[in-house]
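=== RUN LOG ===
request id: a7f3
mode: sequence -> structure
chains: 1
length: 129
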Amino acid sequence: MQIIAHGIDLVDCDRIEKMLARHEARFLDRVFTPREQAYSAQTQNRVERLAGRFAAKEAVLKLIGMGWREHIAWTDVEVINNPKGQPEVTLCGQVRDIAEQMGIDHVSLSITHTAKLAIASAVALGKTP
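=== RESULT ===
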């Protein structure tokens, strides 16, 4: 496998907190899958975890060279921790189709956060088409 692309994103946790205050259910359902919402709800640092997943979704779109366009949904990128606690990415819909066209077999992800900031780095691995 080789590195095909890299994406990185930084999110201000206050921005996510404001979105939750204004549009909680609508924002959560539009941006996060039910599993992502459940994961974030079970901790005291909910905003930080949501901000980390938000940054991860943005980082994945950067590595495929796309923004949020028609036919791409926030939930096309799902970030769930594996049993070891490492975040893993699942792609679906148009994002998965684009990744397959690029020869991406796997996206390796790292997320870190503080009370103020969350950052995610995504590396696309695979074979060049």
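=== NOTES ===
The helical segments are 13-31, 34-41, 46-63, 93-101.
The mean pLDDT is 93.
=== END ===
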